Amino acid sequence: MQKPFIVCDPEKCTGCQMCEFACSARYGGYNPLASHIRLVRITERARPAHIMAIACRLCDEPTCMKACPRQCISVSATSGIMLVDKDVCNGCGWCVEACEFGAVTINHGERIVSMCNLCEDRGGRPRCVEVCVHDALALTTPAEMAARRRREIVRSGILPEMRPALRERP
Amino acid sequence: MYRERILYVDLSRGKSWVEQREARQIQPYLGGVGLGARLLYDHLRPGADPLGPENVLVFAPGPFAGTLVPTGSKHAVVAKSPLTGMIGDSLSGSFWSHTLRRAGYDALVITGRAAELSYLVIHDDQVHLCPAPRLAGLDTWATEDALRREIGSDEFSVATIGPAGERLVRFALIANDRSRMAGRTGLGAVMGAKNLKAIAMRGSQTIRIVDMATLEPLAMELAHRCQGPMTEKYRGLGTPSNVLVFDYLRTLPTRNYRHTTFEGAEKVSGEMLNRRYVERVVACAGCPVACEHVAAVRDGPYAGARSRMDYEPLYAVTSLWGVDDLRPAIRAVELAGLAGMDAISAGTVVAWAMECFEAGILTRADCDGLEPRFGDAAAGIALLEKIVRREGIGDLLAEGTRRAAAQVGRGSEAFAMHVKGLEMAGYDPRGLKTMALGYAVGTRGACHNRAPGYNADIQGRVDRFNGGPDHGAALVELEDKAALFDSLGLCKFIRAVFGDFYAEVGRLYQAVTGLEMTPEMLEQAGARICNLKKAFNIREGWVAAEDWLPLRALADPTPGGPNREPLVVTETELRAMIAGYYAARGWTADGLIPKSQLIALGLEDIARNVGA
């Protein structure tokens, strides 16, 4: 069964970067490069901006784990987070390359990989979700996310196919 | 914590070096505009040509940049302005601001002039000056893309000028992270004159916090307050909601300030913009408010235009031109942003040209075959394009309203809407008397951000229709507080979410830097920074006659109507307000700063230079 992970709703995300700051604070200061959740902004002139944040998606068959030549990544049986054996990892970066979502970072200080652990050390209350004032981030499964979307879109009365007509309403 | 390092780059010699500066030496100026003004004062030769290699271009983030403090990721750009010949200080924000701090610096000071068009790459301690004539003429977005491609990394943040800056348009700006801009006072022309096209930066260091356990709850409490009613305007319709409010208040600049209400206001209102054109709302890095309303045009001759839309650029290409259509407005603001020029100044100089044409002062031949009349958006946009290229009449308009009017003469000075050379912002002064005073005495010219007098007027703290000495004290308080926001690198859009601003900001500052910051110290810092900027202007030859308003505000009453009197600023009331302001500042009747006051503010060296 799919375990819950940090999901970002791109319709609500404003790209404010508070999640990156807050996540990185675990290292005693602020540094987006050390954050386990990373913000992506793609702005091109010809189309609306794409903005969202990405963290480890707790894959059932993690490519990071398969790619590690030292077998230092394993999956937690309880929460599904990726566990990194810090004594074995040498920061080679194969897992960084292998992750399809770009969700693995190398901690600059320790030169070992790090991934979202759903703030297990904070009692499982993910800090990024706490600081997301726009409610774009949630600890949830894709199925729950879809259910939430369905409820929201019905409540709003605006289905995507209705939007152009509404926009042009004088 | 402060980084306690200032990076200097001399473009003429292609050299860079780092100066250690203790946090205690930075603290009196806080950062941002305050620190930038201090560095400019220290390093600029008085009388230097703003567009010569001697001008000093300072980039300074605030002490909160790169932290969880809401809206703290802003930076100031400071240099001698090519538009006013006085202090030019402009703010921008987002990724570039905190990247400079994470690269290890509290400020970047650029002097000299590169031999050919170049860009700077700063990656922590590595600083490279790269010749790049191939970037010539690229717009601000294309330059960002080109640099990331060239450097081979998407993780660089870029600050850049557009073609307007390269061609020394006197109101050119410096853009960063796509649509954030240090817009006013022509600092893009300063960068262009230095042959510096862009600065690409990456910072990998961690911003250390002295007291994280105190900071995080304070910052988040503030962030949650930022979701409340005090920021609703910015999150909801955005600043364009001003259009209908200002039309109602009779302070919406219309047809180059001939009128202060606009019959087409509803068609260019924030309501209309959001209903028809806004497709996305975006935040600056580090900001929980999110005010940037991105609008796109889907039909008509301007289909495909897409731009961030805020009130100031919007009024400057709609009501100010007598244009009641948002589609060309979105195109015009997009054009200004891509070309890298201040839409307020550009819109105002075009409105001046429209009035000159209608008055017969400029002819069709003068305008290269165009007939720029009020209401003609296409002609306005054509003039903007000519300004960017400095082609034909565009070459004249690119000099700014003051210089253009001086050159054309024949009465056109009477409707050149600037103070000290800086074009007025979107608040007509005739119905907002503290604003009128702020325009007149502001150190960077007719500005709504450094001298935000409208706050006192609109909130009813003073009589907005009748100016007097009390308006002076009201303005001093607002200016000092604005200086704190601009130096701490906080956004003024959250000014109303604070309960006790001085106490709360003091606690944040202490938690971040470890340095004591009492409310009294903050208040004094605000006064210190305002006096420092004024001292810079005095050293550059400021004279009291420059603290005045354009003739139209004094001589042309706004049209009255049923139940409303015509509005005007009288010379007597302006004089009374200015006298009240100088007195509230503790300055002499001639607007000079007594030596004793500068010494009391800890500016002994400046007291020796310019103290009265």
Q: CATH first level of the largest domain in chain B: which class? A: Alpha Beta
Q: Order of strands across the widest beta sheet of chain B?
A: 2-1-6-3-4-5
Cα distance spanning the termini of chain A:
48 Å
Write down how many β-strands of chain A occur, each being a DSSP E stretch of 2 or more residues.
9
Task: Please describe what this structure looks like.
The complex is a heterodimer of chains A (170) and B (612). Chain A has 170 residues and is of the alpha+beta class. Chain A folds into two domains: 1-55 and 116-141, Alpha-Beta Plaits, CATH 3.30.70; 58-114, Alpha-Beta Plaits, CATH 3.30.70. In chain A, 25% of the residues lie in helices and 22% in strands. Chain A contains six helices and nine strands; from the N terminus they run βαβββαββαββαβαα. Chain A has helices spanning 18-24, 63-67, 94-98, 127-131, 142-156, 163-168; strands at 5-8, 29-30, 38-44, 47-54, 73-75, 82-84, 105-107, 112-114, 137-140. In chain A, the strands form four sheets. Chain A has a two-stranded antiparallel sheet with strand order 1-9. In chain A, strand 3 and strand 4 (47-54) form a beta hairpin. The longest helix of chain A is centred in the C-terminal third of the chain and has 15 residues, at 142-156. The model of chain A has no long low-confidence stretch (mean pLDDT 89). Chain B has 612 residues and is α+β, with helices and mostly antiparallel strands. Chain B folds into three domains: 5-202, 4-Layer Sandwich (Aldehyde Ferredoxin Oxidoreductase,  A, domain 1); 226-423, Aldehyde Ferredoxin Oxidoreductase Protein, subunit A, domain 2, CATH 1.10.569; 429-610, Aldehyde Ferredoxin Oxidoreductase Protein, subunit A, domain 3 (Orthogonal Bundle). Chain B has 25 helices and 18 strands. In chain B, the strands form four sheets. Chain B has a six-stranded mixed beta sheet with strand order 2-1-6-3-4-5, sandwiched between helices. In chain B, helix 2 crosses helix 19. The longest helix of chain B has 21 residues, at 519-539. Chain B is globular. The two termini of chain B are 37 Å apart. The A-B interface holds A 14-18, 21-22, 24-25, 27-31, 33-34, 43, 45-46, 48-49, 51, 108, 130-131, 133-134, 167-169 and B 66-68, 95, 102, 141, 155, 178-179, 204-209, 212, 216, 220, 223-224, 226-227, 275-276, 279-288, 290, 294, 296, 304, 306. Strand 2 (29-30) of chain A pairs antiparallel with strand 13 of chain B.
